[in-house]
Amino acid sequence: MTSKFKKIIILGGGPAGIGAAWRLKELSYKNWELYEKENFLGGLSSSFKDDKGFVWDNGGHIYFSKSDYFNKLFDKVMAGDFYKKLRKQFIFINNSYLPYPFQNHIRYLRPQQIFECLRGMIKIQNNNKKPKNFLEFNLFSAGEGIVKYFLGPYNEKIWAWPLDKLSYSWAGERVSIVNLEEALENIILMKEEASWGPNYYFKYPKKGGSGAFWRSFEKIFKNRLNFNIEFEKVDIKNKTIYFKDKSVINYDYLISTLPINFLVENSNLRASIKKTAKNLKYNSGIVFGIGSKGELPPELQNKVALYFPEKKYCFHRMTVPSYFSPQNVPKGYWALDFEISHSFKKRLNKNEALKNIFDYLKENKFIKNQQAVVNFYKRNIKYFYPIPTLDRDKNLNKLQKELKENHIYSIGRFGAWKYEIGNMDHSFMQGVESINKILKTN
Asked: Judging by beta carbons within 10 Å of its beta carbon (0-12, 13-18, 19+), is residue 344 exposed, middle or buried?
């Protein structure tokens, strides 16, 4: 290890920062510290228990991974104190529940909709055109019908950004590719094929919500953690970090999980680099939690999440906290989480959004009126999704090259600014890998 005595500072206590800290501990490396502006670990993957006993996640965060390293660590840290669940997800369309993924279950649609989806799939057979953007990627790979009824409106909601202004290089296994033969087979034989995707099974802590796993590391890292200290700026030339409480610390290597645009803006890097950082785009989000007394409505039982493509709903996803763990809600109550994305390209009126949620609940007879809601949770999230704009990779490559030349590793969901590697396990492993690079180990 050539960096045996080098000081390593980690900014941010989310999954990426925790991954870096864990690897340092695993290697028995001594000269490091982690700084976090909150008084807990977890970052965007945190959970919050309110005074009425409801546990709320920042959206539906679940544990699944192709990484044996991460899976073994999760099992070790949680020591069996978790559930293993089927990810039973559905699409709410035409006031009915269509199993996910959409194209495998179009037989549940109305006849005209089925015809349009099949016609679109037939038209794209042997299409060798190369898409220029994410909208064309969907049209060329799924057809006009599926884009019209699901992929188009749903993605417009989740990104809050024009789809023809997004790249498609990030898609990979995040997007279920259409197969005409399978679609026809499912329609004619009335088959269900809901086991698509890398996360059909998932794990989830029994107590404390998704964030319980990350908070477990507070005891593991102990004196290495510095809470309630917020980053202000970094002098990259002199390798000095300034915090808002007026404290100052030097480093040899910096691992930053802060949004990369924010880090660059608050540094003394040259103006051209700061201009590049401003080209990165993101959306914001809001999570509304609704709690009510009684039993969970039968239609929502055994469902982990619903997706909402129809434009009459402003929210794109709803999750059922009690499906993740019954201990997420007090006994005798039920709860729902609603997620909404917004950006300067798509503004959000929060009062209208809340009314939209209540209208949905009343229309489906989940509640009689707003008075039936006994608990209400709202959390604004400034950085929700890093947007894969057409020029994202070009800008990122320039920024990351500049930072690494100055011994700075910018990692995590917004540190790396890549949604496709922004899951909790991906972010954690970025932390592990950054330490391996710094210490030149495997």
From this structure: exposed
Q: Please give the Cα distance from 18 to 97 (Å, whole number).
A: 38
pLDDT of 174 over the 90 cut: no
Q: What type of residue is 310?
A: E
Of the chain, the percentage scoring pLDDT greater than 90 comes to 86
Going by C-alpha positions, the residue among 306, 285, 281 that lies closest to residue 157 is 285
Is the pLDDT at 434 greater than 80? The verdict is: yes
Look at residues 71, 24, 61, 22 and name the one whose alpha carbon lies nearest to residue 218: 22
CB distance 108 to 96 below 8 Å: yes
Query: How far lies 141's CA from each of 56, 124, 296, 303, in Å?
Result: 36, 7, 38, 28
88-121: pLDDT as tens digits: 999 999 999 999 989 889 999 999 999 999 999 9
Domain locations in the chain as residue ranges: 8-45+210-280+394-439, 102-188
- Compute the CA torsion angle 391, 392, 394, 397 (nearest 10 deg): 170
Burial 195-220 (b: 16+ CB within 10 A, else e): ebeebeebbbbeebbbbbbbbbbbee
Alpha-carbon separation of residue 80 from 56, 77, 205, 218, 360 (angstroms): 22, 8, 9, 19, 37
Q: What is the pTM of this model?
A: 0.94
- At the topology level, CATH places domain 8-45+210-280+394-439 in FAD/NAD(P)-binding domain (3.50.50)
Q: How far from each other are the two terminal CA atoms of the chain, in whole angstroms?
A: 11
- Around Cβ 273, how many Cβ atoms within 10 Å? 16
Spatial distance between the Cα atoms of 418 and 227, rounded to a whole number of angstroms: 27
